[in-house]
């Protein structure tokens, strides 16, 4: 039977030997991914054994039963020689009863571990169980989670490749769809990611990771900055009321009062709050249960975000592998699987440590990639993105790919900016904000603004003055109405001063051989003064000689003197309206047409005579 001190000595020896074996294991070259995973699992097993030995050693030093103290007193007292011979007698008695007992030194056990690592058996090469789709830790197998997702209520229908790209973008899912079925889907996805991480990265301390996630989540949840679950104050009165009811506080008042009442509870317990903030008759605890349920769902999402970040490389390889498989035939896929199996079973003859002074990335064969390839892909260039929280991306390919990933999309969402193509290659917060302000101004300027947009008058003889579009439309309305009414009965024309000319002439004159065309600022409102046909023969000479003017925005007629309209004439009266008879105007226009027709006929005969003469 070992003494307490002998057990302590053996535990100390075992700890030192475990530490030595773990150091050698980590320094050994791993040529394939299978070797790396198996090595990590062996290291994990030795770590667990190391922690177990340390716990036993701590219990012996605590000496809760007092045996260690008794043993020390026995060997350090006045009868130490008697104690020595007594123990020697016990040892001889034990070997006399067990003459064939073999004592195996601890060094033999650890030497066997080293031999098993150098020449692993078939069982030692498959320490972990993976599915065929996972490729011994190379790819993810999310088919079950994918089927669960597409069967959720109101979920969009998408293919497996698209799901691999967006399954971690949980912040884009509306809150109304985050029900009990959605929670079960999150639990299923999280369970797989945890189990896969434990198999692929066994050295990852998941207990420590869980504590880290929980601490960060509590901070973001209290501040209302967790992605997909914005702060209630920014969502209006109803959400503020729900939050206040959940705490048993008063929920009345304006938006600012409710927000101030809710923000006053930050960082404080309910017992330390002022009693005047609480409602006299607190509501039922249904709202509080909803808040707790939402918090549980959000915490599941926080864990998924962290595990997806850890398994980012496997996720990217899975996406490429699925695309490659879809582009190949069944025979090509079988050949590829056979090649992967042969590569995983092949042994590398070189056992020395990889010489990699420039810290180059490892290729598919476990060796550093060539330096020229390293430079070609730009892996020596690091890109920092301030929008992603100063995250560093290695190489332009990873940098360009990150603009479509959830980290950058979440950063843009926090800035209140849509993650569109306009913001490609924008990594600084200040640049993104200034560009967004410029785009908003550009979009605002492209909209139709009736108060400021100018429209030129469509006059054939002159461009005319520029007027606001709204003013032109308002002025055109009565003209159009008069034109419609004039088709039934002759009515006075529009007054000159109703057109705001701003000091310009109301009429634009174009003189021809025997008449003058007078045109108002509206193109379809045009009248003729025909001096030879008596169209205005009844008007006085002063009326005919008066300059056609209009003084802007004043209700004065254009002519100072005029006469009454008759059956065969028209006239501009002192009220500023042009009174005319449609029949007389038509007769005048008909006489003009006959005169023009006669002139054209005369010119035709003259040209014919010139053509016939020799």
TrEMBL record:
<protein>
    <submittedName>
        <fullName>Splicing factor 3A subunit 3</fullName>
    </submittedName>
</protein>
<keyword id="KW-0508">mRNA splicing</keyword>
<dbReference type="GO" id="GO:0003723">
    <property type="term" value="F:RNA binding"/>
</dbReference>
<comment type="similarity">
    <text>Belongs to the SF3A3 family.</text>
</comment>
<dbReference type="GO" id="GO:0000398">
    <property type="term" value="P:mRNA splicing, via spliceosome"/>
</dbReference>
<dbReference type="Pfam" id="PF11931">
    <property type="entry name" value="SF3a60_Prp9_C"/>
</dbReference>
<dbReference type="InterPro" id="IPR051421">
    <property type="entry name" value="RNA_Proc_DNA_Dmg_Regulator"/>
</dbReference>
<dbReference type="InterPro" id="IPR000690">
    <property type="entry name" value="Matrin/U1-C_Znf_C2H2"/>
</dbReference>
<dbReference type="GO" id="GO:0005681">
    <property type="term" value="C:spliceosomal complex"/>
</dbReference>
<keyword id="KW-1133">Transmembrane helix</keyword>
<dbReference type="Pfam" id="PF16837">
    <property type="entry name" value="SF3A3"/>
</dbReference>
<feature type="compositionally biased region" description="Basic and acidic residues">
    <location>
        <begin position="320"/>
        <end position="331"/>
    </location>
</feature>
<feature type="domain" description="Matrin-type">
    <location>
        <begin position="383"/>
        <end position="414"/>
    </location>
</feature>
<feature type="compositionally biased region" description="Acidic residues">
    <location>
        <begin position="332"/>
        <end position="351"/>
    </location>
</feature>
<keyword id="KW-0472">Membrane</keyword>
<keyword id="KW-0539">Nucleus</keyword>
<dbReference type="Pfam" id="PF13297">
    <property type="entry name" value="SDE2_2C"/>
</dbReference>
<keyword id="KW-0863">Zinc-finger</keyword>
<keyword id="KW-0812">Transmembrane</keyword>
<dbReference type="Pfam" id="PF12108">
    <property type="entry name" value="SF3a60_bindingd"/>
</dbReference>
<feature type="transmembrane region" description="Helical">
    <location>
        <begin position="592"/>
        <end position="613"/>
    </location>
</feature>
<dbReference type="InterPro" id="IPR021966">
    <property type="entry name" value="SF3a60_bindingd"/>
</dbReference>
<keyword id="KW-0507">mRNA processing</keyword>
<dbReference type="InterPro" id="IPR024598">
    <property type="entry name" value="SF3a60/Prp9_C"/>
</dbReference>
<keyword id="KW-0862">Zinc</keyword>
<dbReference type="InterPro" id="IPR031774">
    <property type="entry name" value="SF3A3_dom"/>
</dbReference>
<dbReference type="GO" id="GO:0008270">
    <property type="term" value="F:zinc ion binding"/>
</dbReference>
<dbReference type="InterPro" id="IPR025086">
    <property type="entry name" value="SDE2/SF3A3_SAP"/>
</dbReference>
<keyword id="KW-0479">Metal-binding</keyword>
<keyword id="KW-0597">Phosphoprotein</keyword>
<feature type="region of interest" description="Disordered">
    <location>
        <begin position="320"/>
        <end position="351"/>
    </location>
</feature>
């Amino acid at each position: 039977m070992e003494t307490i001190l002998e057990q302590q000595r053996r535990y100390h020896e075992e700890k030192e030997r475990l530490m030595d074996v773990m150091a050698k294991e980590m320094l050994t070259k791993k040529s394939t991914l299978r070797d790396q995973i198996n090595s990590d699992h062996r290291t994990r097993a030795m770590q667990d054994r190391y922690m177990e030995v340390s716990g036993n050693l701590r219990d012996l030093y605590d000496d809760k039963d007092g045996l260690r103290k008794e043993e020390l007193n026995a060997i350090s007292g006045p009868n130490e020689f008697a104690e020595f011979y007594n123990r020697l007698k016990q040892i001889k008695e034990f070997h006399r009863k067990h003459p064939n007992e073999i004592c195996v030194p601890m060094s033999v056990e650890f030497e066997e571990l080293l031999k098993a690592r150098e020449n692993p058996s078939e069982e030692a090469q498959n320490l972990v169980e993976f599915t065929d789709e996972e490729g011994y830790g190379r790819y993810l197998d999310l088919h079950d989670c994918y089927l669960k997702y597409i069967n959720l209520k109101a979920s969009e229908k998408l293919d497996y490749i698209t799901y691999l790209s967006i399954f971690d973008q949980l912040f884009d899912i509306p809150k109304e769809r985050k029900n009990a079925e959605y929670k079960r889907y999150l639990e299923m996805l999280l369970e797989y990611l945890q189990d896969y991480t434990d198999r692929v990265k066994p050295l990852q301390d998941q207990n420590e990771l869980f504590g880290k996630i929980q601490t960060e989540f509590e901070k973001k949840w209290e501040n209302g900055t967790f992605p997909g679950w914005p702060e209630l104050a920014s969502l209006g009165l109803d959400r503020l009321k729900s939050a206040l009811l959940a705490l048993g506080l008063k929920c009345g008042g304006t938006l600012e009062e409710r927000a101030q009442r809710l923000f006053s509870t930050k960082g404080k317990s309910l017992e330390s709050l002022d009693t005047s903030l609480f409602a006299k008759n607190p509501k039922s605890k249904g709202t509080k249960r909803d808040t707790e349920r939402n918090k549980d769902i959000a915490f599941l999402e926080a864990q998924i975000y962290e595990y997806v970040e850890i398994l980012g490389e496997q996720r990217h390889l899975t996406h490429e592998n699925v695309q490659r498989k879809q582009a190949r035939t069944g025979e090509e896929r079988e050949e590829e699987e056979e090649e992967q199996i042969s590569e995983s079973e092949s042994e590398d003859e070189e056992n020395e440590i990889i010489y990699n002074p420039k810290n180059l990335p490892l290729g598919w064969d476990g060796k550093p990639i060539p330096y020229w390839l390293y430079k070609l892909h730009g892996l020596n260039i690091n890109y920092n993105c301030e929008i992603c929280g100063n995250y560093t991306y290695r190489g332009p390919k990873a940098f360009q790919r990150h603009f479509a990933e959830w980290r950058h999309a979440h950063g843009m969402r926090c800035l209140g900016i849509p993650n569109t193509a306009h913001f490609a290659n924008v990594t600084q917060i200040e640049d993104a904000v200034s560009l967004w302000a410029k785009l908003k101004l550009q979009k605002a300027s492209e909209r139709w603004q009736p108060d400021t947009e100018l429209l030129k008058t469509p006059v054939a003889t002159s461009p005319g003055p520029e007027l606001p579009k709204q003013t032109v439309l308002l002025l055109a309305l009565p003209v159009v109405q008069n034109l419609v009414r004039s088709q039934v009965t002759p009515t006075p024309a529009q007054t000159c001063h109703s057109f705001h000319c701003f000091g310009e002439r109301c009429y634009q004159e174009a003189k021809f051989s025997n008449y003058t065309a007078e045109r108002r600022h509206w193109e379809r409102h045009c009248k003729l003064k025909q001096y030879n046909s008596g169209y205005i023969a009844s008007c006085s000479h002063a009326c005919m000689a008066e300059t056609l003017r209009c003084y802007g925005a004043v209700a004065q007629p254009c002519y100072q003197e005029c006469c009454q309209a008759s059956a065969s004439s028209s006239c501009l009266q002192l009220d500023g309206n042009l009174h005319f008879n449609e029949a007389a105007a038509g007769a005048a226009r008909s006489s003009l047409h006959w005169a023009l027709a006669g002139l054209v006929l005369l010119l035709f005969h003259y040209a014919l005579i010139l053509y016939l003469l020799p």
